[in-house]
Amino acid sequence: MAVCIAVIAKENYPLYIRSVPTQGELKFHYTVHTSLDVVEEKISGVGKALADQRELYLGLLYPTEDYKVYGYVTNSKVKFVIVVDSSNTSLRDNEIRSMFRKLHNSFTDVMCNPFYNPGDPIQSKGHQTAQTHLPGNF
Amino acid sequence: MDQGSAAGTGGTFISLSDTEQRCYSGLYALCQPDSSGKLAAGKVAELFRASQLPAETLHQVTEVCGAKRLGYFGCGQFYVALKLMAAAQAGLPVRLESVAGELPLPLFIGITNELEMRYPNHPSTNESQPHILGSLTGSAPRPPADRPVLRHPDTSTDKQEAWSPPRSPGISPPRSPSAYRSYPYGAQRNGTDTLLAYDGKVAGCPSVPQENSSPSHYSLKLQPEQPVITRVASVERLVERAEMDYSDDPWRITEEQHEYYTNQFRSLQPDLSALIMGTVAKNFFTKSKLPIPELSHIWELSDVDKDGALTFPEFCTAFHLIVARKNGYTLPETLPATLRPGFVEPGVVPAPPSEATEPLIVFDDNMMPGANQLEMGSVDLQMTSRPGVTSKQDTRDESRKPEFSPKRIPDPHEKPIQHVSTLKPDSPQELDANMKSRTRPRSYSSTSIDDAMKKVEEPPTPPPRPQKTHSRASSLDLNKLFQQSAQGSRPSQHSLSAKSGWLPRPPALPPRPPATQIFSFLPGSEKSSQKAVQQANFADFSKFREEQESSVRGGLSTEDLAPPKLDSTLRHQGHAPQKPVRRKLHPESQSATPPSAAPYSAATLTKSTQRPPPKQKREIQMAIRKNRETNAVLTRLNSELQQQLKVVHRERVTLESQLELLRPVAST
Predict the structure, then answer these.
(1) Burial of B39 (0-12, 13-18, 19+ CB in 10 A)
(2) Do residue B663 and residue A58 have CB atoms under 8 angstroms apart?
(3) Where is the composition biased (Polar residues) (chain B) (predicted)?
């Protein structure tokens, strides 16, 4: 279902990006990159309000004919982007939210590891296994 | 020397398995064969005695094998004797027929090393014998006679050589983890053997003659109790120990290891039930020289509660994984069941093997030279107890922190300093001293009141004057109070300085003026001065009195003071609602003035009390009363502040909701 998952750091470079290799990963990388603009637009729009007012789940960033892109941003401006195949219309919003929640959890687990320097690419195997266990994931 | 696969005795053909052959060859070599192949009788006798068979059995063996007939032990006789002894130890009668079948290797109790007593008689292992040999050879320098032994055509050459370093893998150059896995089966705990083993490992397969010299080299090392061990040997000794466990499971922690991990944990964190923070653990485990991704993986495996800190079981798990990794075991993807923190070893008894702890500790010290320069500094601090000023400060910080953290997780910033917790004799003292020093600002009822009382007697009570500072402090009350306290401070600077030093420090300190008012009322002698103060405040406070009372009634559980004190308290608490806005603008003035006002009035109080000279009891009672009143005041102020907070919060929420409405609706 989810064809691509990406974790983007605060400085907008990817910490972790993984996609189903069928359709050319470059395309997904490009999609994720362009979706960052939408994410920035969303989080800057509520910049005047306090940070806790902003919802972490950003929802559908933009749909294309093939797939939909969902975004999620943490309080430390780390962004998660999930690209979902449009053919899966049964994928509800709640499921996306739960996927993001799991993603966030596994990301915090990686952060808790003292041997992980924030800003390094995430090479944790645990993280990878967590990705595969996301609903309907690779 | 006939090293054939068969040993003949009077025509009897006895077949030896490879392992037996190897063992026997080694034993043969041990017994110092002379040029013709005869064995030294003394050595043979020693060996036989080491088998712990009864003398009668030994006689039988000697007779059956033919040595008695020949008068000496040749190679063949010796082999047969060995096999007979194996049979005897297995319980079979000493007959040639009994040696026809597969037998376990004969067990020889080491004559030099008492540690061999632990050797089980594993039929499957070929290492038990080499271990004995190893110990025996350890005592006896390896003569060049070993060389002929080494020229074995088959791979047992390496195995034989493995006897002097008994546990060297020797066989094949790629030392796969499977080779290592075979070692735990031996379950050997001989320190000497491990030492020799690692020398063999270190030397590697290639040079057999070099390894020949190494046993003699290491035999020297066997006798002293390893103060001069090289880092590699000691590390690997530890690793060797880590391999060994009684249940053949590399993922199970043995008692020795557990004890060692406990010591290591204590060096990082004296309390076994507390946590080691991530940075501390990172520094510690980085010393193991494993690559960072592997350490990261180990951390992920061992930190099961994912809190970024290690409990004691997690620490043991992580340490054990590191040790296993250093031994060559590949890390598992998931945590083995035996390493889970909830796993309880059946029948684990913390054995205190003294000989084990010493080399294990050598591990750490020897890790130090190899550690990073960066870590050297911290490790030096850690291992060598420096009673310097810096360390004392560290312990002070460290001891300060536990007070503030009820969860006993010290502040992560303090954690690197926890390394200096090796100053165990110092730290408790430091802790006490620091607790006193830290509790002093908190329990200002204890000494502060006494100080304040002493101060009060000295300064007069002038009428309050407008304060020139804090122009924005529009309330004259504050200014007057500040002035009073300033005047009070001048006469008794020494005591006040101690107090004023930390009195303004507590951030949420309530306005002290209520306390001052109360204090002034107590002796009843300074009523004139206090009245002046009250009257100065009176104008401001009276209107808020009702509000205060309503807030006071709001569920305060403090004891009721005398009505005049209550009034004064309420009046002064009028400060709080009076300027909710002003408080935000200049909280410092407000917090500064009340505390400073307190000592002044307290000083006046003490003056009155000390007029009747030795009224200590009365002083104490008044001090108690003052404490109670202060508590009451503080509680009331607290409730009031909380109410204000609620109000402000409500405002904030309404404002934010309005903002939400005004904001352009974004798709969510």
Answers:
(1) buried
(2) no
(3) 381-392, 472-498, 526-537
Say if CB B622 and CB B609 are below 8 A apart: yes
Select from B250, B219, B428, B267 the least CA-distant residue to B331: B250
Residue B31 near residue B43 (C-beta atoms within 8 A): yes
**Cα–Cα distance for residue pair B631/B222, rounded to 1 Å:** 70
Which tokens hold the place of B254? 């043995």
Instruction: Point out which residues pair with A84 in neighbouring strands.
Output: A2, A68
- The separation between CA B479 and the C-alpha centre of its own chain, rounded to angstroms, equals 53
pTM value is: 0.34
Nearest CA-CA partner of A2 in A78, A65, A86: A86
Cβ–Cβ < 8 Å for B310, B337: no
Strand partners, A17: A6
A interface mutation test: which of B284, B286, B306, B415 has the most A CBs within 10 A? B306
- Cβ neighbors of B136 (< 8 A, separation 6 or more) are B30, B108, B110, B111, B112
Terminal Cα-to-Cα distance of chain A (whole angstroms): 8
CA dist B197 and B164 (Å) reads 8
Partners of A49 on chain B (C-beta within 8 Å) are: 656, 659-660, 663
Q: In the prediction, which pLDDT does B100 show?
A: 62
> Which residue is listed with tokens 């290592």?
B180
Task: Nearest by CB to A115, from B282, B660, B667: name it.
Answer: B282
State which H helix or E strand residue B7 sits in: strand B6-9
- B203 pLDDT above the threshold of 60: no
Residue B594: closest CA among B579, B607, B609: B579
Q: Distance from CA of residue B116 to its chain's centroid? A: 33
Q: Which residue has the higher pLDDT, B659 or B401?
A: B659
Least confident of A36-50, A51-65, B546-560: B546-560
